[in-house]
Amino acid sequence: MTRYAHVTGWGMAVPQKILTNQQLEEMVDTTAEWIASRTGIQERRIASDHESTFTLALGAAQNALKTTTLDPNDIQLIIVASASPDHIFPATACLVQDSLGAINAGAFDLSAACTGFIFGLNMAAQAIRSGSLDNAIVIGAETLSRIVNWEDRNTCILFGDGAGAFVLQASETPGGILSCVMRSDGSGADLLSLPAGGSRYPASQKTLDQKLHTIHMNGREVFRFATREMASATREATNIAGLSLDDIELIIPHQANSRIIEAAARGLRVPMDRIMMNIAKYGNTSSASIPLAVCDAIDQDRIHPGDHLVLVGFGAGLTWGALVMQWVEAEREIAPTRRLRRMVIVLFARLRSLVLRLLRRLEGLIWGASSKRN
Question: Is 374 an annotated catalytic residue?
Fold first, then answer.
């Protein structure tokens, strides 16, 4: 039996706070017109103090799961792609797993910057096709506003916060994820980086003074790299799927810069009405940009059953990749009793989590007292 990995659920979560180009005019030496003309961005979402990559990832996963017939305990794998996780460890995916109530899921974070969502989708799809699991959630989530230098007008104008998630399920129906190209070139690692905070440059007064905990980017070089590799990866992934560009109804690129997307479209000789762009609303949300764009495309009725889509991205590493999928409409109707069942499952999972935390504390007290007596 041939197994296929279908996207059966999708969801997104973005902060309520909006930062417009006009507001940025008052913060750095730039103009709203210049930002819009050079990037295509009009506004971006900024996380509040009580929001983080975890909270946005959880919201997107919950919304994606609501569109399926699955319960949280049906999920067997959670991947969070992020360049701005809550912690180096534990993985943000583990925090999502606990709060989502996915008690049967393994969970890990994936670091491939803006290409991370494509890499994560491919890994989950491979696991499903191999038969090792049936249901997975892949999330792209970022709070890039926490790691930009708000005094650097070349970078702070670009980035925003948000999260998007897909639910993947095993199926015998042909379609779903058809092919994927994943590439990297570490010789360009210095072109886009967050230098400090790891083991190479641990936090110190010097790294703080030099603002090494913020995004550093060579915009001109990244632009050239992106326009070249986006077109190349799109062609390669399409060919591997046994399709031509004429068979592709919609290309959904990483939303980094409207000029990059337009240049890639020209290189592919694809009209812009077959390219999805929503960068004006959200800015560059790194690993979250592609799932956010897919959710918007669905809301705009630009994706239909049977359509062939290309998801294509690039990012720090350097990394880039493209994925071809055929959209297959899944069962959508959720019975009211199913919703109640999910609520009970989540409540039970949270109670279980609380009990486990208390048991660990009790165990620590018992063993601590025992070791003192010995």
Answer: no
